[in-house]
């Protein structure tokens, strides 16, 4: 009698009416046979509930990303595997070099180019003639093919990872601030007789940014510190290399990257923007202060005031 009662109360599978079952979905409580149930964190769910849960999860994830959250790096950038800014920067430097080499009709002596002469970082030209663009254009000029090749190889090796971490806009900001930081250091402290060019200031900024990023991600910083130490040692030993330009770029790049990766999530963009603007304002202030000190009389007492035959 009990077996007859049990068979009478036995339900049939919602999807297979010809199959009797005593099992139910823990979510919708519909009867289901073992074939129509899937193991869940709590009990078993039927195939319809599993499909519905997946659709809801995808919809929530899409809404979350659309709102600006999810799949972000520590700097707030959208996760990506595509590098764009670094190749563009390399291309710009290469194009500028080709133009200067064509004008000078020499690959190794491209500094004879008029474009090169008008774009290098020469402090008297900035202070006396007001040629402020030299603070930026000098970062895209290189003395010969070897100088260009070494800098662009370094940019390719270091810039890709930092760009993926920071994102295109933040990475561009760090690069340009570092470039300007190196130029400001040279303009402020370097000898008036020296003419400087090269992307090294920006590259040291990228290197400083890599160090900050490694520390933020709690990775082994020894290799990066070693690379920085070796490069600074070379900068000290070789007189033709601008140590001040390297140090200026390194400091500014590290500070700018620190603002990018350590900014709190809730006020990330505002804090990153504020620090970038403050760094830019500080450098502009330093340049204006130095410019006020570099009077024409003072410069002429140090330099031959662009006399004929003087090399910039």
UniProtKB/TrEMBL annotation:
A molecular function GO annotation: peptidase activity
Lipid bilayer topology: Multi-pass membrane protein
Pfam families found in the cross-reference section: Rhomboid
Subcellular location: Membrane
Top EC class of this enzyme: hydrolase
InterPro entries: Peptidase_S54_rhomboid_dom, Rhomboid-like_sf, Rhomboid_protease_S54
Residues passing through the membrane, by range: 83-104, 140-159, 171-189, 221-238, 244-262, 269-288
Peptidase S54 rhomboid domain segment(s): 130-261
Gene3D superfamilies (UniProt xref): Rhomboid-like (1.20.1540.10)
Keyword entries, A-Z: Hydrolase, Membrane, Protease, Transmembrane, Transmembrane helix
GO biological process, one term: proteolysis
E.C. numbers: 3.4.21.-
Similarity annotation: Belongs to the peptidase S54 family.
Protein name: Rhomboid family intramembrane serine protease
């Amino acid at each position: 009698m009990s077996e007859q009662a049990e068979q009478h109360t036995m339900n049939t599978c919602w999807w297979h009416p010809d199959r009797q079952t005593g099992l139910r979905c823990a979510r919708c409580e519909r009867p289901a046979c073992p074939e129509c149930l899937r193991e869940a964190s709590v009990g078993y769910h039927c195939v319809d509930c599993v499909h519905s849960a997946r659709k809801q999860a995808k919809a929530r994830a899409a809404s979350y990303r659309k709102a600006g959250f999810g799949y972000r790096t520590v700097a707030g950038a959208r996760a990506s595997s595509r590098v764009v800014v670094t190749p563009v920067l390399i291309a710009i430097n290469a194009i500028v070099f080709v133009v200067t080499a064509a004008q000078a009709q020499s690959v190794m002596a491209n500094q004879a180019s008029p474009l090169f002469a008008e774009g290098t970082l020469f402090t008297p030209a900035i202070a006396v003639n007001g040629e402020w663009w030299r603070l930026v254009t000098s970062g895209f000029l290189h003395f010969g093919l070897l100088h260009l090749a070494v800098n662009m190889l370094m940019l390719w090796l270091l810039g890709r990872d930092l760009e993926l971490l920071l994102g295109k806009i933040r990475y561009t900001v760090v690069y340009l601030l570092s470039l300007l930081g190196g130029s400001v250091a040279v303009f402020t402290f370097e000898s008036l007789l020296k003419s400087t060019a090269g992307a090294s200031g920006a590259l040291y900024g990228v290197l400083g940014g890599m160090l900050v990023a490694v520390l933020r991600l709690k990775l082994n910083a020894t290799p990066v510190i070693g690379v920085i130490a070796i490069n600074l040692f070379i900068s000290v030993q070789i007189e033709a290399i601008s140590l001040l330009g390297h140090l200026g770029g390194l400091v500014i790049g590290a500070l700018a990257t620190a603002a990018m990766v350590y900014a709190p999530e809730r006020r990330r963009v505002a804090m990153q923007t504020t620090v970038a603007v403050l760094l830019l304002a500080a450098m502009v202030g330093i340049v204006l202060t130095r410019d006020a000190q570099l009077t024409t009389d003072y410069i002429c007492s140090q330099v031959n005031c662009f006399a004929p035959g003087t090399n910039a």
